[in-house]
Amino acid sequence: MSSPIRLLAILIVALLLRPALAQNLPPEVDAALARAKVPREAVALLVVDAAGKAPARLSHRASVPMNPASVMKLVTTYAALDLLGPAYSWRTPVYVEGAVKDGTLLGNLYIKGQGDPKLVAERLWLLLRRVQGLGIQKITGDIVLDHSAFEAVDADPASFDGEPLRPYNAAPDALLVNFKSVVMTFVPDRLANTASVQFEPPLAGVRMQSSVPLANDSSGSNGSCGDYRAALKADFSDPARIRFAGSYPAACLEKVWPVAYADPSSYNTRAVQGLWQQMGGQLGGSVRDGSVPPLTLARPPTFELLSPPLAEVIRDINKYSNNVMAQQVFLTLSLADQGRATRAASREVVRRWWQQRISASEAPTLDNGSGLSRQERISAQGLARLLQTAWASPLMPELMSSLPIAGIDGTLKRSQARSPGRAHLKTGSLRDVVAVAGYVHAASGQRYVLVALVNHANANAARPALEALLDWTVRDNGAYVPD
365 has which bridge partners? Predict the structure, then answer.
């Protein structure tokens, strides 16, 4: 190779390698990190052309694997879109075993879970209504709930962070009913000086307090809502009773409060039995966990309840960072591939997919696929490559539309971005972790991929630095030239 050509080749290679090198941070980002007392060594930042046609606008520690918190949902949801397809739907088969005579099923009813992430209370009602549509009002046998499609996972909701009543800590389940949560709606009635409490779904064998007194307001004004949850002094410790020792501020108007049920192992049976009875159904046996008999399973189901399509499901996952739904999708990857779901098998499915579609190296370290983990790791560069791959894919609209819009909706509704609506970003937050990753539409019309990961005890205080990085990216006017 001649000397000039060799020199040119060296310069080209050097230019291509520049994105991996740390650069000076934008002054406003540097200042915000200093105020948060977060060192540069605890941060990874990358801003790069979405189409991958130019060197990085900013690259700082981009190749270092870090905990991404819920930003890891980007890996799970895009892998699912690519492997399962945006129209993929979960089917929950129902089997009627026995004859139906005069409105009575002389046998058992089986409901086999297949991982539906959105089997919420209203859709469970639809399932049971279809059972009644078969002419069944009474079941002499049992209603059997089959969870066998997913491996059993740690069912202790306090195991991650000691917050067992937080719905985000619900464990995945092949038959996941209403996220194993009770949704309470409070509606004040000033004339009665009480607030009614509605519970969804009804839980068999659980006493639920139907009203609470309104908080006294000596000023005679409407008062302020404040922390209504603390004012209620709720007691959820007894699985057989939900009660309130406090009062409800009338100024709060109507409020909805979802809470994870205190005994998740009994939730499904209580919810199915409670709703069946509320609908006027009778049951001679019980609602219990079990398996569909092989001979029954060998024949077509009586009917199947179809879930919303994957493209709709991932909007709930990414817009609102729903952990248990993300884990349902993650486990579905191995269920679709092997016929039964395990975390280990799903990790292997994603690893193979990553190496084939994203990069032969830099595969992320996955745990449960939701980011609710201390073990999961991925680099800013890996996330950027995933987002660039998605940008060039026909699936880009489905992924992008699932992400929160800065200053508009989802987990970014309260974003302080100076130009709301210009970024679709997945957010992530754990103790000692904050992160964002997604697409930014700059003032120049350029589309960028932005990734920011912070792993530090003061990570929460670094949120203004991430806002500053977003504003800096949006301000690009087309005059940017790499150093």
Answer: 377
